[in-house]
Amino acid sequence: MTSGAILDVARDGIVVFLKVGGPLMVIALLVGFVISLFQALTQIQEQTLIFVPKIVAVFAAMLLFLPFMGDAMAGYMGRVAVRIATGG
């Protein structure tokens, strides 16, 4: 396997990682921002208040995006398997 092929596989893996993890991270960021804004406006400084809504939102987003995430990972595995089978 040449260094170019290794870089292609690594680049493809990073893109798939961003496709799979990106939406969940953005949702967690937005929920955290909204909760932080709520805490600042109401002066409620409870540390555990941020975790439960964020966990629920990420779990709901994971259920929503699961077909897309599975398809992206399956496609990447298929491309890697073809490279392994053909020898590079």
Structure write-up:
This protein is mainly alpha-helical. It has one domain (3-86). The chain has two helices and no strands. Helix 1 runs antiparallel to helix 2 (51-86). The chain is elongated and about 60 Å long. 0% of the residues are buried.
Topology (elements, then pairings):
Blueprint: H1 3-42, H2 51-86
Gap between N and C termini: 5 Å
Q: pLDDT below 50 for ≥5 consecutive residues: which ranges? A: none
Residue fraction in strands: under 5%
- Element order: H for helix, E for strand: HH
The radius of gyration computed from the alpha-carbon positions, rounded to a whole number of angstroms, is 19 Å
Reported for the largest beta sheet, the result is:
none
Q: What quaternary form is this?
A: single chain
Helical segment count: 2
In terms of structural class, how would the helical and strand content be classed?
Answer: mainly alpha
What is the tally of beta strands? 0
Question: How would you state the average pLDDT, rounded?
Answer: 91
**What is the total domain count?**
1
- Helix share, percent: over 70%
Shape: elongated
Structure keywords:
88 residues, mainly alpha
Short recap of the structure:
With 88 residues, the protein is mainly alpha-helical. It is 86% helix and 0% strand.
